[in-house]
Amino acid sequence: MRTALITGVTGQDGTYLAENLLQRGYKVYATYRRSSSENFWRLEALNIRNHSNLVLLQHDMTDFGSTLRLLDRSSPDEIYNLAAQTHVQVSFEQPFTTAQITGLGPLGFLEAIRARKAETRYYQASSAEMFGLVQGTPQNETTPFYPRSPYGVSKLFAHWMTINYRESYDIFAASGILFNHESPLRGTEFVTRKITSSVARIVRGSGGVLRLGNLNAMRDWGYAKDYVEGMRLMLQADKPDTFVLATNKTTSVRDFVTLSFRAADVDLDWSGSGVDEFALSRQTGQRVVEVDPAFFRPAEVDTLIGDFTKARKTLGWFPSTDLHALCTLMVEADLRRLGNDSYR
Ligand code: NDP
Ligand code: GDR
Question: Per the database record, which ranges form the NAD(P)-binding domain (predicted)?
Answer without folding.
Answer: 5-330
